[in-house]
Amino acid sequence: MKLHDADIKQLFAKVKEDKNFHQNFDTQKSWKQVAQYCGLPQNTSGLKHTWRDWVEFYIWDFTHVMLVPVGAVAFSILLFVGSWFGIANASLGTLPGDQLYSVKLGMERAQMALATSSAQKAQLRTEFTSRRLEEMVALAASGKQSDTSQLASAVDRVKQDVSDMKADLSNETTSQATELAKAVGRKADVYTSTMTSSASSLPSDVQKQVTEVKSIITETKNQAVDVMITAHEQAMTSENTHELELTFQKAFVHASLIASKEDQSKLAQATALQKQGVYRRAFQVLKEIELLHADTE
Fold first, then answer.
1. Is the sign of the CA dihedral 137, 140, 141, 146 positive or negative?
2. 60-92 pLDDT, tens digit each
3. pLDDT, tens digit (0-9, with 9 covering 90-100), for 152-175
4. Helix, strand, coil % over all residues of the chain, rounded to 5
């Protein structure tokens, strides 16, 4: 006789209502009475549980006892993770002073902690510095007097980021410093351009900070070039050579824009040195041109 759930519930209901089945009732000793009352076989000696019965029992036990709480925990975790990602995404466009800005900075610190290579860390650092510049520009564009203090703080954050990169270019191990130098070499001109173009829209009391930041960016850029040249001299790999060539071309274009007719010979000299692989002297020649026309930039 196979009982369904509805049948079993009905039997339990009958047993519960019957006064004969009190709390001291012994099921084994009174099985005949139970069987007669519930319509079950009185002789159970021939009944045996097959392996299928046991498998079905343990599957039922596992799914009802284990999976229900596990499912509840999993749902809670998914709900928490989903909420966190929602907050993190909402924080991406925040500016200093906004409620979720601290979440944005926390996410950046987490990304840095999870970075597995020097190249990834260097890329993240320059990217985050670019974000600080974007925040500075956005605050300046808002034109709100109440944002002046936040704007000054934003400029200070840029200054601190660039200063830290400059210090790390000297203190990091060779491979780490080289990767950071490459990343700085790609971004330094963008940093300077952003600071220069934004200067006119910044309050007068922030102008001094901007000048300081531009000076530190130039120093950091020069430090990065020196690190790349050293890496090239120590190991002339195709990657180091290619990166140094790109950096030289950018420096050459900049020097060409400010050079006078008298400086043409120096430009030719720098080109010749670069082709010979004498990068340190080639950059020095371009630097001489920049120093001669520093006041005109």
1. positive
2. 666 656 655 655 555 455 554 444 455 555 566
3. 888 999 999 999 999 999 888 888
4. 80, 0, 20
**Upper half-sphere CA count for residue 77 (Cβ side, 13 Å):** 6
Neighbours of 23 (CB within 10 A): 4
> What kind and span of H or E run contains 215?
helix 204-234
> For residues 143 and 287, what is the distance between their CA atoms, to the nearest angstrom?
38
Residue spans per domain, the chain: 1-42, 72-114, 120-236, 253-297
- Which structure tokens are listed for 208? 């001094």
Q: Report the candidate in 77, 101, 76 with the shortest Cα–Cα distance to residue 88.
A: 101
3-state SS class at 166: helix
Q: Quick one: pLDDT band at residue 9, thresholds 50, 70, 90?
A: low
Percent pLDDT > 70 in the chain is 67
The Cα 198–Cα 35 span in angstroms is 91
Which backbone phi and psi does 50 adopt, to 5 degrees? -85, 170
By the 8 A CB rule, do 184 and 170 touch?
Answer: no
Residues in the chain: 297
Q: How far apart are CA 145 and CA 207, in angstroms?
A: 15
pTM of the predicted model as reported, rounded to 2 decimal places:
0.66
| Through-space distance between the first and last CA atoms of the chain, rounded to whole angstroms | 99
Q: Taking 50 as the threshold, does the pLDDT of residue 57 lie above it?
A: yes
pLDDT digits (tens, 9 = 90+) for 238-263: 888 999 999 999 999 999 999 999 99
Kindly calculate the radius of gyration of the chain based on its CA atoms and give it in whole angstroms.
37
132 neighbors 157 (Cβ within 8 angstroms): yes
For residue 40, give the 3-state DSSP assignment.
coil
Q: Please give the Cα distance from 131 to 126 (Å, whole number).
A: 9
Do 199 and 207 contact (CB within 8 A), yes or no? yes
